[in-house]
Amino acid sequence: MIHTNDRIIKHKTGLLNLAEELGNISKACKMLGVSRDTFYRYKEAVSSGGVDALLEKNRRVPNHKNRVDSAIEEAVLARILGSE
Fold first, then answer.
1. Which residues of the chain have pLDDT under 50?
2. Which InterPro entries match (predicted)?
């Protein structure tokens, strides 16, 4: 049985524990409204990296299209602030 106090992964470990307790993965997933694919992803994460592997990972890619060169940014700020 897996134990944790972290709110983020408590639901995920609860699913794994319920499946172990019931001995039926499909039933545990149905009770908690989670797909079996999700269950197996959680299980794989725990087996490969422990409970800490269940923490949310940010998959968002930064958008660099909106960035300007730092020299241009400094020149614009200097002109606006009047310290040119």
1. none
2. Trp_repressor/repl_initiator
